[in-house]
C-alpha cells in the first residue's frame, strides 16, 4: 500500500448502528473521571468518546487506602467503584460535558441486574450521552462472585436487563473481563442478550506484597492490573472474539479495545486484531495528554501504511 | 486548584543537599502559577517507561521571572533513583501546579511552620508569603539525623524563632517535632500551625495545635497514581461542613487540609505488627523521615 497524508485518513468510527464517532479514540472507564480534570489537558469534544467512571444508582465510598500500587509496566488499583451516584452524574456532570460537545459513554454498575437497569434507565434523553457501558467485570467489589462477566448466564441476565431498560437509540456495550475460561463464551452471551458492542478488557485481578510492612500493598489485598503489562492479553481477547464473529459464532458488533494503550502503534494493534474503537486508560495517569497523542499517532500510523480510513484497518490481521 | 499545564521541563541543575537532592527545572508557564503548598508531578523515564506512574513533589521554590521551579527529593525507590541520575540538559515531563495550597490570610497572622525532613521544602516560600503580609512566623524542623534536616539556615534567615530537633540528637535537641511545638506556639503567639510531613506527625501536630488554640493546616501524603484528580487512588476520609465524612482526593481537594477535619485513625495505614517488622523498617517508622518510603508516595 502507498503511504498517504495523515490529514487524508478518514478516522470516523462506528459506536453502534445509529452512532458514528468522529474518531475512534476514547477514554477507558475510571481513568478520566467525569471529564472535568482531564479537560485541562484534553478538550472533551476532541475525544471520539469519553467513557465515564462507573456510576451506580447510589453513591458509593469504595475501598480503603492504600488503593494503588505500581507494578512492572503497570499498576494495581482497588478503588472499588467510588462514585457520587447516577443522579449526580445526570444533574451535575452530563450537562457540563454536553456543553463542551463531549460524546459520553456512561459506565454503569449495580449489585443486582435491576440496579444496573435502573442506572441505565436514568440516562434516557440526557444530552451528550451516546451509549451505555455495562461494567459487569469490575474486580474491586467485596465479593468476587459479583463479577457477572465471569459467568455467561449472569452476564446474559445483566445485559438483557440493561438493554430492556435503556433508550433504544443508545448502544449498550458490555465490558468483559479476561479472567475467564472462555471470553468468547461470555461475549456470545452478551451479544445474544442484546449487547450492541463489547468493551475489552477490564483489569486483571492481581496482588502485590509490600516488603516494608510484609503485608499486601493494597488495603483490599487484590486489585485490578492495568497498563502496558496487560496489553498482549487485551489484544488476544479482541482477536479471539473478532475471530469468533468472523466464524459466525456471534453476531458482528463493534469492539472497543483497551488495555495498556499508550501510543498510536498500540491502538493500531488493537484495530488490526478487530477493535473498531480504542480507549486509553492508565496511560492518562502517565501522560494526561495521552488520548490526543494516541489519536495523532494512530492517524500517522494508518497513513504510513496506506490505510485510507481507520475502518479499513479493523480486523486486518484476520485476512 | 490552579489549572495545571503539561510541559517538557529542562533540568538546569541537580545537586546534593544533605541526604537529599535539589533539582532545578525550567518549566515554562508553571512557575508563575505556583503558590506555597502546590506540587508537581514528573514522569520518570518517559512515556514508554516500565515505571509508568508519575512521582509527585512539593515545590520548594518557584521563580516566575526565570520560569524555574526547584524541588527537593530523597532517593527511596526506583523512580527517585532514576530521577537522581538526571543531568543538566535532560528533559523530564512535568505537570503542575497541582493541588490546593496552604491558605494564607490577607491580614497579618502569626504562624508556626512544622516540617519533618524535606517536608520543609515548601515552607520557606510559605513563610515569605506570611511575612510579606506583615505576619510573623516560627519554625519547628525535625528529622532523624542532622543530614536529613533541610533548610535550617533558610529558616534562621527568616525568623529568630527556629526550633530544631533530631531523633538521635545529632543536631538541635533530641526528640520529635511535636516536642517543642506548644512552646513555639506560645513564644510567637501563633493562631495557625502549618505542617508538612508523614501522616502520624501531622496528626500529632494537629492535636498540639488544637490544644494550644491554633488552627492546623496539614499537607498530607497519600499514594497517588494521576495527581490531577481522575484516578481516585489518594482519597482520605475528611469531614465536610455538614459533619459527614467523605473520601476526598488529596491531590485536588488537598494536599492541604484543615487537620481537624481529617479522620486520622481511618486515614493512617495500620501499623505493622512489631513482631514481624524488621528492625531497620521500625527505625524508619519511628522517626519523621518516612516520606516516600513506598514508591509513589507524595513528597
TrEMBL record, chain A:
Domain of life (superkingdom): Bacteria
Cofactor note (record): Binds 1 FMN per subunit.
Keyword terms, alphabetized: Cytoplasm, Flavoprotein, FMN, Oxidoreductase, Pyrimidine biosynthesis
Name of the protein in its database record: Dihydroorotate dehydrogenase
InterPro entries: Aldolase_TIM, DHO_dehydrogenase, DHOD_1B, Dihydroorotate_DH_1, Dihydroorotate_DH_1_2, Dihydroorotate_DH_cat, Dihydroorotate_DH_CS, Dihydroorotate_DH_I
Source species of the chain: Streptomyces showdoensis
Phylogenetic lineage: Bacteria, Bacillati, Actinomycetota, Actinomycetes, Kitasatosporales
Keyword Oxidoreductase included in the entry's annotation: yes
Pathway annotation: Pyrimidine metabolism; UMP biosynthesis via de novo pathway
Entry annotation: catalytic residues: 138 (nucleophile)
EC code: 1.3.-.-
From TrEMBL, chain B:
Name this polypeptide is given: Dihydroorotate oxidase
GO BP terms in the entry: pyrimidine nucleotide biosynthetic process
Coiled-coil residues: none
Binding locations of [2Fe-2S] cluster: 226, 231, 234, 251
Keyword Metal-binding appears in the UniProt entry: yes
Textual note on the cofactor: Binds 1 FAD per subunit.
Organism of this sequence: Streptomyces showdoensis
Family: Belongs to the PyrK family.
Any one Pfam family match given in the protein's UniProt record, by short name: DHODB_Fe-S_bind
PROSITE patterns: FAD_FR
Entry binding sites for FAD: 55-58, 79-80
Keyword Transport assigned: yes
Chain ranges of the FAD-binding FR-type domain: 4-104
Cofactor(s) this protein requires: [2Fe-2S] cluster; FAD
GO molecular function: 2 iron, 2 sulfur cluster binding; flavin adenine dinucleotide binding; metal ion binding; oxidoreductase activity
Alphabetized InterPro entries for the sequence: Cyt_c3_hydrogenase_gsu, Dihydroorotate_DH_ele_sf, Dihydroorotate_DH_Fe-S-bd, FAD-bd_FR_type, FNR_nucleotide-bd, PyrK_electron_transfer, Riboflavin_synthase-like_b-brl
CDD domains assigned: DHOD_e_trans (cd06218)
Keywords in alphabetical order: 2Fe-2S, Electron transport, FAD, Flavoprotein, Iron, Iron-sulfur, Metal-binding, Transport
Amino acid at each position: 500500500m502507498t503511504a498517504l497524508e495523515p490529514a487524508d485518513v478518514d478516522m470516523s468510527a462506528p459506536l453502534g448502528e445509529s452512532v458514528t464517532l468522529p474518531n475512534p479514540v476514547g477514554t477507558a472507564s475510571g481513568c478520566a473521571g467525569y471529564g472535568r480534570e482531564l479537560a485541562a489537558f484534553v478538550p472533551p469534544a476532541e475525544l471520539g468518546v469519553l467513557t465515564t467512571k462507573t456510576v451506580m444508582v447510589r453513591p458509593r465510598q469504595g475501598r480503603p487506602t492504600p488503593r494503588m500500587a505500581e507494578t512492572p509496566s503497570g499498576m494495581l488499583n482497588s478503588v472499588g467503584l467510588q462514585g457520587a451516584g447516577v443522579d449526580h452524574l445526570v444533574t451535575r456532570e452530563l450537562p457540563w460535558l454536553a456543553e463542551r460537545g463531549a460524546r459520553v459513554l456512561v459506565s454503569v454498575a449495580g449489585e443486582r441486574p435491576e440496579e444496573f437497569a435502573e442506572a441505565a434507565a436514568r440516562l434516557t434523553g440526557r444530552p451528550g450521552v451516546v451509549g451505555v457501558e455495562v461494567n459487569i467485570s469490575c474486580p474491586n467489589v467485596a465479593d468476587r462472585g459479583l463479577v457477572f462477566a465471569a459467568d455467561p448466564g449472569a452476564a446474559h441476565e445483566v445485559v438483557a436487563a440493561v438493554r430492556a431498560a435503556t433508550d433504544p437509540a443508545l448502544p449498550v456495550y458490555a465490558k468483559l473481563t479476561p479472567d475467564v475460561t472462555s471470553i468468547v463464551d461470555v461475549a456470545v452471551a452478551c451479544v445474544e442478550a442484546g449487547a450492541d458492542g463489547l468493551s475489552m478488557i477490564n483489569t486483571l485481578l492481581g496482588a502485590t506484597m509490600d516488603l516494608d510492612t510484609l503485608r499486601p500493598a493494597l488495603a483490599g489485598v487484590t486489585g485490578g492490573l492495568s497498563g502496558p503489562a496487560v496489553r498482549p492479553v487485551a489484544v488476544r481477547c479482541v482477536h479471539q472474539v473478532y475471530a469468533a464473529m468472523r466464524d459466525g459464532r456471534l453476531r458482528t458488533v463493534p469492539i472497543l479495545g483497551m488495555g495498556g494503550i499508550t501510543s498510536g502503534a498500540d491502538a493500531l494493534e488493537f484495530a488490526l486484531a478487530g477493535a473498531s474503537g480504542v480507549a486509553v486508560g492508565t496511560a492518562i495517569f502517565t501522560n494526561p495528554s495521552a488520548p490526543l497523542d494516541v489519536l495523532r499517532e494512530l492517524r500517522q500510523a494508518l497513513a504510513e501504511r496506506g490505510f485510507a480510513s481507520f475502518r479499513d484497518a479493523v480486523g486486518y490481521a484476520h485476512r | 486548584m490552579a489549572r495545571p499545564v503539561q510541559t517538557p521541563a529542562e533540568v538546569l541543575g541537580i545537586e546534593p543537599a544533605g541526604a537529599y537532592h535539589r533539582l532545578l527545572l525550567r518549566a515554562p508557564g508553571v512557575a508563575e502559577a505556583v503558590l506555597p503548598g502546590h506540587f508537581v508531578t514528573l514522569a520518570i523515564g518517559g512515556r514508554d517507561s516500565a515505571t509508568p506512574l508519575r512521582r509527585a513533589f512539593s515545590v520548594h521554590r518557584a521563580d516566575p521571572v526565570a520560569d524555574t521551579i526547584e524541588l527537593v527529593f530523597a532517593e527511596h525507590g526506583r523512580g527517585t533513583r532514576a530521577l537522581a541520575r538526571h543531568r543538566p540538559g535532560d528533559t523530564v515531563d512535568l505537570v503542575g501546579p497541582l493541588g490546593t495550597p496552604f491558605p494564607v490570610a490577607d491580614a497579618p497572622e502569626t504562624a508556626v511552620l512544622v516540617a519533618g525532613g524535606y517536608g520543609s521544602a515548601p515552607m520557606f516560600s510559605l513563610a515569605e508569603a506570611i511575612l510579606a503580609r506583615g505576619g510573623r512566623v516560627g519554625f519547628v524542623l525535625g528529622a532523624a539525623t542532622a543530614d536529613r534536616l533541610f533548610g535550617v539556615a533558610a529558616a534562621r534567615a527568616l525568623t529568630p524563632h527556629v526550633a530544631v530537633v533530631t531523633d538521635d540528637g545529632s543536631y538541635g535537641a533530641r526528640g520529635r517535632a511535636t516536642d517543642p511545638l506548644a512552646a513555639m506556639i506560645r513564644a510567637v503567639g501563633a493562631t495557625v500551625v502549618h505542617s508538612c510531613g508523614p501522616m502520624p506527625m501531622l496528626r500529632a501536630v494537629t492535636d498540639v495545635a488544637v490544644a494550644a488554640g491554633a488552627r492546623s493546616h496539614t499537607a498530607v501524603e497519600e499514594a497517588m497514581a494521576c495527581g490531577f484528580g481522575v484516578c481516585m487512588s489518594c482519597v482520605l476520609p475528611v469531614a465536610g461542613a455538614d459533619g459527614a465524612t467523605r473520601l476526598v482526593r488529596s491531590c485536588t481537594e488537598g494536599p492541604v487540609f484543615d487537620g481537624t477535619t481529617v479522620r486520622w485513625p481511618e486515614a493512617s495505614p495500620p501499623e505493622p505488627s512489631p513482631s514481624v517488622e524488621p528492625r531497620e523498617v521500625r527505625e524508619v517508622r519511628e522517626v519523621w523521615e518516612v516520606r516516600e518510603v513506598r514508591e509513589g508516595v507524595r513528597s
